[in-house]
Amino acid sequence: MLQSDQFVVNEAWIVFKLNDAPIRTEQDGDFNFLALMDAASCFILGSANVSTRQAEASQFESRRLLQNAQTHKKRWPKTLYVPVELSEMHLIAESERLGITVVRVEETQLLPFISEAQEGFRERFGGQRIQ
Q1: Structural domains present in the chain
Q2: DSSP states of the chain as a string?
């Protein structure tokens, strides 16, 4: 299993879904929330809300998420970890275009990094972890 102490800051980023179930809004419909996190510090570099009407973040949303994180960190990571459970082909393609190596892993391998953020999201917006 991956651990944060095996990375240095900005060496690797992780993209993951914060919510267990779509977040409902009356005006705009249902959304999923993606987060981009630095693996070493577990600092969330950015997030994007993606309509459930879309299978994944659009190319524009993917590019914006990565660029916002890069603006914060001032450089690109070497590696982006993406859970195999996420279908984020635009984000993967944009990352590879930028020279970032994309590694697909089971979400369970990322739990040491992402579980606290997911739990905080769950406490703030409700819901429970779907097993």
Answers
A1: 4-125 (3.30.420)
A2: ---GGGS-TTTEEEEEE--SSPEEETTTEEEEEEEEEETTT--EEEEEEEETTSSS--HHHHHHHHHHHHHHHSS--SEEEEETT---HHHHHHHHHTTPEEEEE-HHHHHHHHHHHHHHHHHHH------
| Structure token digits, residue 104 | 């697909």
Q: What is the pLDDT of residues 43-84, one digit of tens each?
A: 999 999 998 888 889 999 999 999 999 998 899 999 999 999
In 3D, which of 87, 86, 81 has the Cα closest to residue 105?
81
The token pair that represents 82 in the structure block: 């993406």
pTM of the model: 0.88
